[in-house]
Design goal:
Radius of gyration: 17 Å
Helix content: over 70%
Number of helices: 3
Order of helices and strands: HHH
């Protein structure tokens, strides 16, 4: 199997620390709130860390896809959710 190679160790450890920190935060939030929807990001972040630590050939591609989804699509969904919340408040007169 072809292995992934990270040439810049600073970026390698930064990615691991960011994903690891988000994983810990999601674990904490899921346990304290009891909402099972938190298992989805926990699963995705665990898979990403597993790919990185095993130096799987698709680790870099998975990081890029995760970053696109996490940064672009998630931010867009948050904006859309706030927009809907404001629209409902205006329509209901609250």
């Amino acid at each position: 199997m072809k292995q992934s190679h990270f040439t810049d160790k600073t970026v390698y450890w930064a990615v691991i620390s960011i994903i690891g920190g988000l994983l810990l935060w999601n674990l904490y939030a899921t346990v304290t709130t009891g909402r099972l929807v938190g298992l989805l990001p926990i699963t995705i972040q665990s898979i990403l860390l597993g790919l990185i630590f095993t130096k799987h050939q698709y680790a870099r591609m998975a990081i890029k896809i995760w970053a696109i989804v996490f940064l672009v699509i998630a931010s867009g969904l948050q904006f859309f959710g706030r927009f809907l919340e404001d629209a409902v408040k205006r329509l209901s007169g609250c």
